[in-house]
Amino acid sequence: MSNPLSDFLRDYLTVGIFGSLGFVLVGLLLFIAWLIRPDRRQAQKYIAYESGVDPIGDMWSQTQVRYYIFALLFVMFDVEAVFIFPWATQLEVFGWFGLVEMTLFILILLLGLVYAWRKGVLKWA
Amino acid sequence: MLSLFAQLLPGPFTAPTIDWLALGPEIVVLALFVVLVLLDSIKLERATAFMPAVANLGFILALIPIIVLAADGGDRVLFGGSYVVDSMALILKALFVLSAYVVVLLSTNYLAEGDYWESEFYSLLACSVLGMLVMASSRDLVGIFVALELLSIPAYMLAGWRKGDVRSNEAGLKYYLMGVFASAVLLYGMSLIYGVGGSTRLDVIAARLVEVGSEGIPVITLAILLTLVGFAFKVSAVPFHVWAPDTYEGAPTPVTAFLAVASKAAGFVALIQIVFFCFIVRGDIIQPVFFVLAVLSMTVGNLIALRQTNVVRMLAYSGIAQAGFMLAPFVVADELPVQSRQAVVIYLVIYAAMNLGAFAVVIAVARKTRSAEIDSFGGLFTYMPGLAVALTLFLASLIGIPPLGGWYAKFSVFSVLIEAETPLGLATAIVMAINTAIAAYYYLKVAKAMWFDDAPDGDVTPVPVPASLNAAVVLSLVVTFVLGVLPGLITNVTEYGPLAVGGP
After folding, report:
1. Which single residue of A46, A111, B436, B494 has CA 20 to 30 Å from B320?
2. Closest CA to B391 of B473, B322, B479
3. Above pLDDT 90, what percent of chain B?
4. Does A108 sit within 8 Å of B195, measured CB to CB?
5. Nearest CA in chain B to A119
């Protein structure tokens, strides 16, 4: 078929077929397992699986809320890296134009770090 | 498929030639953002005293390139047609920058007197305005989406600015969750459009939509519907309006003014771009969608507004109804593209002036009464006559009484609906006429409280109104009046400018 629109829609058909295949496969495996497995209930089997070690303490563990600052700062550098890597591989192609653009981009992101540092959020206190 | 990969392979690279003047407003506002953050980082608390002045100066400076571009005339097309600076974009950019200027005037005392973070407020405001400026020129799906996120994300934070107040937290959270949900729906619609159109540029997609004709109607309908629903959330059109009243009531009032005017206008600008430069070729799909959105918005918004006892909540519901009026010209978008686009832009500009003015008076009065209940406006005329007269004029303009601006806005919408002579357009005009009459009741209820009722507790000592608030009221009043008497100031630009000959 030469019509791009039909091709576009056919691509969705592929996604649909593969998606339903996944559901069918998982369902089939679970069904077969249910058919052939023996059913012997024991209290030990209901404990959370910790690679063979008996679990200690509560499952509910809390994380220090201050980590969110580091998560945010991580995102800042992460996004920076996402843009820098493809640019770095094409450094010679983009030349001076690319260099100036990337410097501007890094400077604007750096502003965020300067702000965070001056506002004292980097101190663990 | 092979040709697609061939396009993606890096060929010899030439740096794009950039028309720096055309990007002038954006560059000034970006520089303002950088300066504000730097000032805040260097000076810390000592910066708060001159932050609002710097912000105001920055927004005024951003007007200079806009005026230069307007005087220069002519369309400027950048980045291969995905960024266009024409007369409509310039009018909208001026609208955004001036709205931001007024919002800074409204916020100055509000922030200083409450226990709020001040410096960040202005930098986030500048960031949001930058998104709006980009939106006014984007003719590309990616550009529109990036602009939408750039203007929304700071607004989510601004809505929750009163950190200690549960209602403000609720406002911010609701706005954020609804906004993210809308973005997700919008993105899905856009991805389908990209699949059909094979490009992110609106003009290319429009040509492709014409080319495929009646083929693939279900997927095109779904794509257009999802995209429009995403924007309907942003402009708080019924039935996607539920977040608006709670957010407007809980957010700090200057932020509410910003959301109700600039943010809503930006949503409409996005709709204008995507409808008039792309979806317009499928009038059969968009006509019924906009008919339902417009009629539901004006009717439901007005009926709920009748029952409100809080002015800010009333203005929120009236804003929903006014959004319905602004959606009305879209119903005849494919019949009369130039006139209906003009009607929407005119309505946006005039609505911004009168609504900002109304919020300015509400903020000024709340400094005395510490509430925004309609009862608390009782007897306002006896002790602060200037504010009472100003608010009455703004409300009269919102109703649409000549010679105020609101009258001309409604008139232009009516005339385009009737000129189009389509059944849906005429039906919209009739519903709109009924709703205009209903709206008069709740606007006049506030006016009645001010002029005829007694002040609550008999307290009639006036409070001093800060100069910045006075300036905001006067500025809005002047614009409301001038545009009512001389609407030609906008229509001339849109009629004889490139807007008239442009279009798809």
Report:
1. B494
2. B473
3. 36
4. no
5. B41
- Per-residue pLDDT tens for B87-105? 888 889 999 999 999 999 9
| CB-count burial class (<10 Å; 0-12, 13-18, 19+) for B283 | middle
Residues in chain A closer than 8 A to B38 (CB atoms): 111, 114
Report which of B115, B87, B122 is spatially closest to residue B346, judged by C-alpha positions: B87
Residue A57 forms contact with B (CB below 8 Å): no
**Pairwise CA distance, residues A81 & A87, whole Å:** 10
Please indicate, yes or no, if residue B44 is contained in any of the structural domains: no
Residue B483's domain comprises 281-504
**Yes or no, beta carbons of A5 and B38 under 8 Å apart:** no
- What residues of chain A, 76 to 105, have a C-beta less than 8 Å from chain B? 90, 93-97
Which chain B residues are within 8 Å of A111, Cβ to Cβ?
A: 34, 37-38, 41
Domains of chain B: total: 1
**All residues at 6 or more sequence positions from B290 whose CB lies less than 8 Å from its CB, including other chains:** B228, B327, B328, B330, B331, B333
In a domain, B24, yes or no: no
Q: From residue B124, how far is each of B94, B154, B231 by CA, in Å? A: 19, 5, 22
Q: Which amino acid is residue A18, in one-letter code?
A: F
Is B379 inside a domain boundary?
Answer: yes
Residue in chain B closest to A86 (alpha carbons) equals: B10
Task: Give the pLDDT confidence score for residue A3 in this predicted structure.
Answer: 63
Q: Tell me if ipTM is over 0.85.
A: no
Instruction: Decide if B335 is inside a domain.
Output: yes
Label residue A120 exposed, middle or buried (CB < 10 Å: 0-12, 13-18, 19+).
Answer: exposed
| Other beta carbons less than 10 A from residue A56's beta carbon | 6
Of B13, B34, B38, the CB nearest to A94: B13
Query: In A, which residues are within 8 Å of B215 by CB distance?
Result: 3, 5-6
Name chain A contacts of B198, Cβ cutoff 8 Å. 4
Query: Residue B41 is nearest to which of A5, A9, A115, comparing CB atoms?
Result: A115
Q: Is B20 on the interface with A (CB under 8 A)?
A: no
pLDDT for B113-123, tens place per residue? 777 788 889 99
What domains can you pick out in chain A, each with its CATH number?
63-125 (1.20.58.1610)
In whole numbers, what is the pLDDT of chain B averaged over residues?
86
| pTM, 2 dp | 0.86
Q: Does A13 touch chain B (CB under 8 A)?
A: no
Cα B292 to chain centroid distance, Å, stands at 21
The residue-averaged pLDDT of B229-236 equals 90
